[in-house]
Write a structure and sequence with these properties.
Structural class: alpha/beta
CATH superfamily of the largest domain: Response regulator
Strand content: 15-25%
CATH class of the largest domain: Alpha Beta
CATH topology of the largest domain: Rossmann fold
Number of strands: 16
Distance between the termini: 84 Å
């Protein structure tokens, strides 16, 4: 009888211990799906650019979901991307955003073009219809008139102007022909670069901006520019049409250099037209050379190549990393749908810090006043058939 009592007591104590242990473990009791919107050019000349943005989000979502999602309180959240083509037409982007918010209850929208981000900024803080814009845009104008519900990912393009001009003028180039993409982004790049170029002692001999999203034959524009015998051509938009501009310029006999705006990627252009035609080009450092600064880029680029069969781009790597920052902000905010709380949480501790030995892109935080994530820029030039690695530009630090 004594032994029976001891056995009953032991079993009771074991059950109590298991109960207390289970109470100490906070497990998700339910699972919900969070839908993120993407409005982007997924057709036309800018389709490659839009698809690179989408790829970064797709890979991030797949990784997070495969790991079980994120847990907030008693709920586990997984993610889904809802994509809509806007062909970089502002009116279509507005339609897409309204459908996301009003019909599908989506309150976080990724948008990668300045032409369409601007209109979205006019509606995303409307009471009862708020949504967070995750903006892949380097337009520095947004820092001057910040939107309370927007985060920008890449460095502002203004950080490249000084280094680009220094390299170009170091080669003795003074006469500039301008043939960048038209639209809000290209117009802002052009007006700011012209001011910086002339302020440094250069001259602008011709201006012939063209729509890189609709044109495929840039010969008429190049004829206008080349007639003025420039030393260097300022150009760029999405990488594919930029490659056409450079190739057509070389075919027309142009021997000078190119200053390529940050949207176009020199490595992607080299894949299409060859390094020889890029000799003397100045632009943003190719993404895979980013591994010299952020070692995790190497594996990310390899994995991407294995999965997609092509070279990774900055758009993909930045959006992949940025999506993880977004989910960390959600966890810090304790919500997946409180736009104000999520936006505020980007500045919470190390939420927006991504060490380069763990992530393909190293962000150093966020400017909470403007919503700009702090990612350094790096310029490059094609010299003797090779990309150089110029000094890292930590633009948020006082120089």
């Amino acid at each position: 009888m004594r032994y029976k009592k001891i056995l009953i007591f032991t079993v009771a104590m074991l059950m109590a211990t298991m109960f207390l242990a289970s109470c100490g473990e906070k497990k998700a009791e339910k699972t919900e799906e969070v839908v993120i919107g993407l409005t982007a050019p997924l057709s036309g000349s800018g389709a490659g650019y839009g698809e690179d943005i989408k790829a970064g989000l797709d890979i991030a979502i797949k990784k997070i979901n495969n790991a079980g999602g994120i847990t907030i309180g008693d709920t586990k959240y997984t993610f889904k991307l809802e994509s809509a083509d806007d062909a970089m037409v502002p009116e279509q982007a507005l339609t897409n955003a309204n459908q996301f918010v009003l019909e599908k209850g989506i309150n976080i929208i990724w948008d990668p073009t300045a032409n369409t981000i601007g209109p979205l900024m006019g509606i995303n803080t409307k009471a009862g219809e708020e949504f967070l814009i995750m903006a892949y845009s380097s337009v520095p104008l947004y820092a001057q008139t910040p939107n309370a519900s927007m985060v920008t990912l890449p460095p502002p393009f203004s950080v490249y102007m000084g280094p680009f001009i220094k390299i170009a003028m170091g080669k003795g180039w003074k006469k500039l022909g301008m043939l960048q993409t038209s639209g809000a982004y290209g117009d802002l790049w052009g007006s700011n670069f012209e001011k910086a170029w002339t302020g440094a002692g250069g001259t602008v001999v011709a201006k012939a901006p063209a729509s890189y999203y609709t044109e495929t034959d840039f010969t008429p524009y190049l004829t206008t520019v080349l007639a003025q015998n420039p030393d260097v051509i300022f150009c760029g938009g999405p990488s594919d049409p930029t490659a056409l501009v450079i190739e057509q310029a070389r075919n027309m006999g142009f021997k000078g250099g190119f200053i390529v705006i940050d949207q176009a990627k020199l490595d992607a252009i080299a894949d299409k037209i060859g390094m020889d035609k890029l000799e003397g080009a100045i632009g943003v450092l190719p993404v895979e050379l980013g591994a010299n600064t952020w070692p995790a880029m190497t594996k990310f680029a390899q994995d991407y190549g294995d999965q997609y069969g092509e070279r990774v781009t900055w758009e993909t790597a930045i959006c992949y990393t940025g999506f993880h920052i977004l989910t960390e902000a959600m966890k810090a905010a304790g919500s997946v749908d409180d736009v104000d709380a999520i936006r505020a949480a980007f500045a919470d501790g190390n939420v927006s810090v991504t060490p380069g030995d763990e992530w393909p892109v190293g962000f150093s935080g966020i400017n909470n006043d403007t919503g700009a994530l702090l990612m350094p820029g790096t310029a490059t030039q094609v010299k003797d058939g090779q990309f150089t690695q110029e000094e890292l530009i930590e633009w948020w630090k006082k120089q």
